[in-house]
Amino acid sequence: MGAQYYGADSENGDRIDDPSEDALSMLISDLNDSDNAFVVVQPDEGDPAWFTSVAVLNEGGFEIVRRDTTRNEHVVTTATSINDIAHDLTIWMAARDIPGQPIKQVSKF
Predict the structure, then answer these.
(1) How many angstroms separate the CA atoms of 90 and 41, rounded?
(2) Is the pLDDT of residue 32 over 80?
(3) Distances (CA, A) of 47 to 42, 50, 75, 79
(4) Which residue among 32, 68, 99, 103 is the one 20 to 30 A from 48 at the CA level?
């Protein structure tokens, strides 16, 4: 059975369906600069409207990409704390539109 909401896939083939914050931390901590340099999280659909990725930087730390075409959002940042990255991504993904779920309304005050 596939993911209900989204899946996380790392370069080395590891996959976690609907990853928790702890699971994201585990996937990120397993990254290295030789054969497992990135992890991508996105909905399980043919042409997902959003994704996020974490990749190892040669100079240390990680590059985090957040892309959501429905909100015209494309943000690239860097960070070193695995726990902070997993926490921030969990919050960001919770605000995304999930296939088969009602679309969330975001208001700007």
Answers:
(1) 10
(2) yes
(3) 10, 9, 19, 28
(4) 32
